Amino acid sequence: MDECMISCVVMVVLLMQTHHAVAASNNSNNSDALRKFGWWKWEGATSSNHCNWLGMTCNEARHVIGVRQETYSVSVYDQFSRLNLSSLPSLHFLILFGIGISGTISDQIGTLTNLTHLDLFFDRLNGSVPHQIGSLTKLTYVDLSFNQLTSSIPHQIGTLRELNSFNFSSNYFTGSIPSSLGCLTELTLLNLDGNHINGSIPPKIGYMKDLVFLNLDNNLISGDISSQLKILKTLEWLYLSNNRLSDKVPPFITHNCKCRIDLYNNYHLEAYTPSPCNGGHKNISLRVKISLVLSLVFLIFILLGFVFGSLWKKRKVQPQSMATKKNGDFFSIWDFDGKLAFEDIISATEDFDIQYYIGSGGYGSVYRARLSTEKVVAMKKLHGIEIEEPAYLTSFKNEVRMLEQI
Q1: Is residue 150's pLDDT more than 80?
Q2: How many C-beta atoms surround the C-beta of residue 349 within 10 A?
Q3: What is the DSSP string of 296-314?
Q4: Sequence-distant (≥ 6) Cβ neighbours of residue 169 within 8 angstroms
Q5: What is the pLDDT of residues 267-303, one digit of tens each?
């Protein structure tokens, strides 16, 4: 009996030692993989405790569950494939926002089966998205926008049933929209703007019962506007401009006041007159009245121009530096007027409306808009308390350095 008890105690001790050895081995693998990547070069990265490194999040077992590197913390110009993703099986979020990583997305992405948040926005990634991404069944958020990704969107995306935000905009994706996207019934945002996607709008998009934002602008999409879109009762933004859509505009589009709709520049689409709530005019008389008022104002300005022109000739010519007219063009140095530029931003983004939102990082939100100068720019809007933080000056400088390399 005593011998049996001794044997049991010895067995428990051995099992505990084995467990601790495995845990230590996993932690060592985490440290080695991250250190070999060479991104953690600042003070403290030489420590064996990788959980203390900037941008690392660990659980109680010291397994890495989060990697966050963004433009404000570090600028990295390296190959994404150098990161051994298979050594980070506990990872819940991977955020490498705007740090300049390049190369392709490794097939190892499929080993991150615990991943819920994948953000590789505004980097230099190229190649195709591996089909192994379909193994990330816990994923709720994915943003690969503003890269140079090519090929078609893998149909395996349809297995990500927990996904609620899907942004592949501003890349070079080709092929058609996979019908399997209709399986993403929890999706609230789908953004494929600015690619080379062709084919028609798959009717199964109508299965996305919670969809609020749908942007397919600036592609090569043809065919008619699927009548299944009228099933999307929660839809508030529908952008289909600059495509090759044809046939008639469905009644649910022409009489829709709940959803903001843009069908601009589809030359084969039947003439579309927006409803009053989507930019149309309530009546012709109002348009005529506005035209008359504008014409009168124009004539007044012409008369004033002659008057001031005559007075100007009588005045002494001022130095060039005093006569320079200010403007709000971001790319004009000598006569830049910040107040005009700010007013241009507010106007171009419609007071930072969600339709111009393209992503966010550890601080602030990023918007894209076309200014009155016809220049397309990306701008960051800071949250209230961030404006008073001196640390963000360093963050801003890192972003500027990265943009200089583009």
Answers
A1: yes
A2: 20
A3: HHHHHHHHHHHHHHHHHHH
A4: 145, 146, 191, 192, 193, 194, 195, 215, 358
A5: 888 876 666 665 544 333 444 456 566 667 667 767 7
- CB atoms under 10 Å from CB of 120, counted, come to 22
3-class DSSP state for residue 68? Answer: strand
Give the C-alpha separation, 211 to 190, whole Å.
Answer: 8
Whole-model pTM above 0.90? no
- Structure tokens, 333: 């140095």
| Rounded Cα–Cα distance for residues 27 and 30 (Å) | 5
Length of the chain equals: 406
The per-residue pLDDT for range 117-138, each reduced to its tens digit, is 999 999 999 999 999 999 999 9
Strand, coil or helix: 156? helix
What is the residue whose two structure tokens read 């089909």?
131
Residue 253 DSSP SS3 = helix
- 110 token code pair: 């499929």
What is residue 167's three-state secondary structure? strand
Nearest C-alpha neighbor of 150 from the set 126, 132, 134: 126
